[in-house]
Amino acid sequence: MQKEERISIDAILKDDVLEYLTQLDLKEDFEAGKIKCNSCEDIVTFENIGIIFFEEHIPKIVCNKPYCYQNVPITR
Ligand SMILES: [Zn+2]
User: Fold this and answer.
1) Does residue 8 carry a pLDDT above 60?
2) Does residue 29 lie in a domain region?
3) Mean pLDDT of the region 20-49
4) How many domains does one find in the chain?
5) Is residue 30 in some structural domain?
6) How far, in Å, from the CA of 26 to the mean position of ligand 1?
7) Distance (Å, whole) CA 36 – CA 1
8) Is 52 domain-assigned?
9) For residue 65, what are the domain limits?
10) Domain presence at residue 76
11) Which of 39, 47, 57, 72 has CB atoms 3.0–4.6 Å from 68's, for a disulfide?
12) Whether the Cβ atoms of residue 76 and residue 54 lie closer than 8 Å to each other
């Protein structure tokens, strides 16, 4: 069950992420490799993007390492 869910998320992720980053005006930085994980400071790309979240209305991105992923403050 969980495996199927993961596949569909991966399939839609790229388009959704790009759309979302465009709305946040972060697309150019993302494509230029300038977006860093808010937790471990690795460069975040399509290969390792985890979650986009907001802190004080500022968009932040973390990579998909369990450590970074799990430390995101879920506030919405
Ligand atoms: Zn990270």
Assistant:
1) no
2) yes
3) 93
4) 1
5) yes
6) 18
7) 32
8) yes
9) 2-70
10) no
11) 39
12) yes
The pLDDT of residue 51 is 84
Q: Please tell me the pTM assigned to this model.
A: 0.73
Separation of 51 CA from ligand 1 center, angstroms? 10
Which pair of structure tokens corresponds to residue 24? 């946040």
What 58-61 contacts at long range (C-beta under 8 Å, 24+ apart), as own/partner pairs, is 59/24, 59/26, 61/26, 61/35, 61/36, 61/37
User: Which of the two residues, 41 and 6, has the higher pLDDT score?
Assistant: 41
CB 5 within 8 Å of CB 11: no
What is the 37 CA–ligand 1 centroid distance (Å)?
5
The percent of residues above 70 in pLDDT, for the chain, comes to 79
Report CA(60)–ligand 1 centroid distance (Å): 11
Cα 30 from Cα 71, distance rounded (Å): 21
